[in-house]
Design a protein that fits this description.
The complex is a heterotrimer of chains A (100), B (118) and C (486). By secondary structure, chain A is an all-alpha fold. In chain A, helix 1 runs antiparallel to helix 2 (28-53) and helix 2 (28-53) runs antiparallel to helix 3. Chain A has helices at residues 4-24, 28-53, 57-87. Chain A contains 3 helices and no strands. Chain A has one domain: Orthogonal Bundle (Helix Hairpins), CATH 1.10.287. Chain B has 2 domains: 2-39; 58-111, Up-down Bundle (Methane Monooxygenase Hydroxylase, Chain G, domain 1), CATH 1.20.58. Helices cover 66% and strands 0% of the residues of chain B. Chain B has helices at residues 6-29, 36-39, 58-72, 77-111. The N and C termini of chain B lie far apart (65 Å). Chain C has a domain at 277-486. Chain C is mostly helical and 486 residues long. The longest helix of chain C is centred in the middle third of the chain and has 32 residues, at 158-189. Chain C is built from 20 helices and 2 strands. Chain C has a two-stranded antiparallel sheet with strand order 1-2. Chain C has helices at residues 2-10, 18-36, 43-61, 79-106, 113-129, 133-151, 158-189, 194-203, 211-227, 236-243, 246-271, 276-299, 304-325, 328-354, 371-374, 376-390, 396-410, 414-440, 454-472, 474-484; strands spanning 68-70, 75-77. In chain C, helix 4 packs across helix 20 (474-484). The chains are: A mainly alpha (100), B mainly alpha (118), C mainly alpha (486). Chains in contact: A-B, A-C, B-C. At the B-C interface, helix 4 of B face helix 1 and helix 2 of C.
């Protein structure tokens, strides 16, 4: 029987994978994909808990997280494009003008 | 218990045999007239134009960004659509305000020329 | 089901979000005007945004003393929110006043600059008045996303690009932690309403040591500590502050930081009051760490903007001391300190904005040599702001620190207060060094390029009036701050 714990565990593993990716990857777009993975693992947690608790708040929260993530993605891509236009790269190792 | 899976195993077996069999068989009896176009990784009968690692125009990204933002706003319409009879006039007005806000964004994008391809 | 809908409809109270509605309407109007108007018309945009802030301020201030609650307790426009809202509005107004000339000098179209500042302010206002995790999260994101764009606003400038990208990547990363914390706490308590969470946790003491609760609180705190730039989550601050356009740096260090404090304070006090001994102990260590790291690293900086960035970390540490004290004086001192910090920090940045030429920010210590003699009035104003940042009487900085440390002493944290005062003493070194360069070094330049537009003067005058008003008669505002806390 699949219970809420299974979903929570999957979400925790996804979240950890996302965190690991953010800390180790070099490409800004891949880093951002890892952040999206973290956000979506949170969404999974919310949905599972919402079902488990029989309470709609979690699902509403997921709507907001999704829209906010989309807005973040748009702004992030725009920033990366303008960075790329100036530097011809989006490798975070090259974000070095200011001490990281 | 395992008996229930017998048909599935049989199906998998037949599928694997058919796949391997037809590949091997066509290799054995088929005619071979290799040409450059046929050996290309994306063989579809057309000569390749450049490499796949070419840079895309930044316009694609702008359209993609705008699409993400406007597309995802639809999620707020689903809960409203489910409940709109009960929400009555208030819900209708609120959704109107929401659409109006999106419209402001749309007009802004339009006037800024982000939707023009040239 | 029918009842639920009816209850929800009855609980809508537009008055609770009126200030932010006004502000957002002005911001959207500005966006449209900017899209239809020909390029280069910047003055009307400045006036419209200032009028927008003034109308909002009127709506905010008229709500003092008559709290509005709305949306099933998701929004509370109480005195606490009102006090912070005034702080944000002052920060936004001062930033806008000092920006107009700067943006034109640097040769960028003003375009979305003012609307973005207004959106940031609206987000900050939601954070201060949110009493539900959802409203706080939404406010935080509206604020942060606008700030990511503002930090990278100078598209052609690589440093501004870097600042924007860094702020974006790390900010989004911290949002992930914050959300996971909220999700876990939702799982434990079954609610996202702050007061319901608090009541539930208080009624079920066994949950207080539940690993899920503790992990939730920890992740949630990481998200907020990142936003207020407390050590060890301060790494982004100096880089982003250095690379962002100077007025935006000033704004970021005052408005959004205060907003993060407001939401953090409300969450800790509403939800986790049952765990107060535990979280004050953790914040004790973080406050000490933040003060020491901010002050010690600031000593070795030669770029004034970067030095002020580290000093803003240190000031976040002082404000955290007020949270550790967790009593009436401590909390009201945070409100007071954030207002005082807005005046003194934005004032200091306003003068830095003037000291540069196009493309050359002129922010090094060397670049300021002799500035005090060649430009005596600006020199004096800068000196007053720095004195206030140091905490010398009779300035706002002194009164703020006095209340904060008084709160700590009253709560029995004598050592914390001593460490705080010692840190203030350390900070004298790097603030005084700026003055040494300004007054005791030969001027290599005559600073003839320094133009002093009226709008920036207004911004500086607001800062000075604020500094002296809060410094000489702090009691008046402190009484308001006392009324504002829970």
């Amino acid at each position: 029987m699949i219970s809420v714990y299974h979903y929570m565990t999957i979400a925790a593993i996804l979240f950890a994978m996302g965190t690991y990716g953010v800390l180790t990857r070099k490409n800004a777009i891949v880093i951002f994909m890892c952040i999206e993975l973290m956000l979506n693992s949170v969404n999974l947690t919310f949905i599972a808990l919402s079902r488990h608790l029989n309470n709609m708040d979690g699902q509403i929260f997921v709507f907001f997280v999704m829209t906010v993530a989309a807005a973040e993605a748009a702004v992030g891509l725009a920033l990366m494009i303008s960075f790329f236009r100036n530097r011809e790269s989006i490798d975070v190792e090259e974000i070095d003008l200011l001490k990281w | 218990m395992l008996d229930n899976y017998l048909p599935i195993f049989t199906l998998i077996l037949i599928a694997v045999c058919f796949a391997i069999g037809s590949t091997v068989f066509s290799g054995l009896i088929g005619q071979k007239k290799p040409s450059e176009v046929k050996l290309a990784p994306y063989e579809c009968g057309m000569p390749l134009v450049g490499t796949a690692r070419e840079r895309f125009s930044v316009k694609f990204y702008i359209i993609a960004m705008l699409f993400i933002v406007f597309d995802i706003e639809v999620v707020f319409m689903y809960p409203w659509a489910v409940m709109f009879k009960r929400l009555g006039m208030f819900g209708f007005v609120e959704m109107g305000v929401f659409i109006l806000i999106l419209l402001v964004g749309y007009i802004y994008v339009w006037k800024k020329g982000a939707l023009e391809w040239e | 089901m029918e009842n639920l809908v009816q209850t929800a409809l009855n609980n809508v109270n537009m008055w609770a979000i009126m200030p932010s509605i006004i502000l957002v309407c002005f911001a959207m109007g500005l966006l449209l005007i900017n899209a239809f108007l020909p390029r280069g018309a910047t003055k009307p945009a400045m006036w419209i945004s200032l009028i927008g802030l003034a109308v909002t301020a009127f709506s905010v201030i008229s709500g003092w003393g008559s709290p509005q609650y709305g949306f099933s307790d998701a929004v509370a426009l109480d005195n606490f929110a009102t006090f912070f809202n005034v702080t944000f509005l002052i920060a936004a107004a001062m930033t806008i006043l000092m920006s107009d000339d700067y943006i034109r000098r640097e040769g960028y179209p003003i375009g979305e600059y003012y609307p973005l500042i207004l959106f940031t302010t609206a987000g900050a206002m939601w954070m201060a008045s949110g009493t539900d995790m959802m409203t706080i999260f939404l406010g935080l994101e509206v604020m942060s996303i606008s700030l990511y764009v503002l930090a990278g606003f100078f598209r052609g400038d690589v440093r501004s690009n870097e600042a924007g990208l860094k702020y974006f990547l790390l900010g989004a990363f911290s949002t992930g932690f914050l959300l996971y914390g909220i999700a876990l706490i939702y799982g434990v308590t079954g609610s996202t309403r702050l007061s319901e969470i608090g009541v539930f946790l208080n009624a079920h003491p066994s949950l207080l040591s539940n690993p899920m609760t503790l992990a939730g609180i920890m992740l949630l705190s990481i998200g907020f500590l990142f936003k207020i730039a407390a050590a060890p989550f301060h790494m982004w601050t100096p880089d982003v502050y250095e690379g962002a356009p100077t007025p935006i740096t000033a704004f970021m260090s005052a408005g959004p930081k205060a907003a993060a404090f407001a939401a953090f304070l409300r969450i800790m006090e509403y939800c986790f009051f049952s765990l107060k001994p535990e979280w004050t102990a953790v914040l004790w260590a973080l406050a000490v760490l933040t003060m020491i790291i901010g002050n010690v690293i600031a000593i070795s900086q030669t770029n004034v903007k970067r030095m002020l960035a580290y000093s803003s970390i240190a000031h976040a540490g002082y404000a955290l001391v007020g949270m550790v004290a967790a009593n009436e004086i401590g909390y009201s001192a945070i409100l007071f300190y954030m207002l005082a910090y807005t005046f003194m920090n934005i004032g200091a940045f306003a003068i830095l904005v003037l000291a540069g030429k196009k493309g050359e920010e002129n922010l090094t210590l060397e670049g300021l040599s002799g500035f005090g003699y060649k430009r005596p009035l600006l020199g004096v104003a800068f000196t007053i702001c720095l004195f206030s940042l140091m905490g010398i009487p009779p300035t706002a900085g002194f009164a703020g620190k006095f209340y904060i440390f008084a709160g700590a002493v009253k709560a029995g944290y004598i050592w914390l207060a001593i460490i705080g005062v010692l840190n203030s003493a350390v900070s004298l070194y790097y603030y005084l060094r700026v003055m040494v360069y300004m007054y005791f070094r030969e001027a290599e330049e005559d600073y003839s390029w320094v133009k002093v537009p009226v709008s920036v003067v207004v911004s500086i005058v607001i800062a000075l009036v604020g500094i002296f008003y809060l410094g000489i008669i702090p009691g008046a505002v402190m009484d308001l701050a006392r009324l504002a806390i829970f």
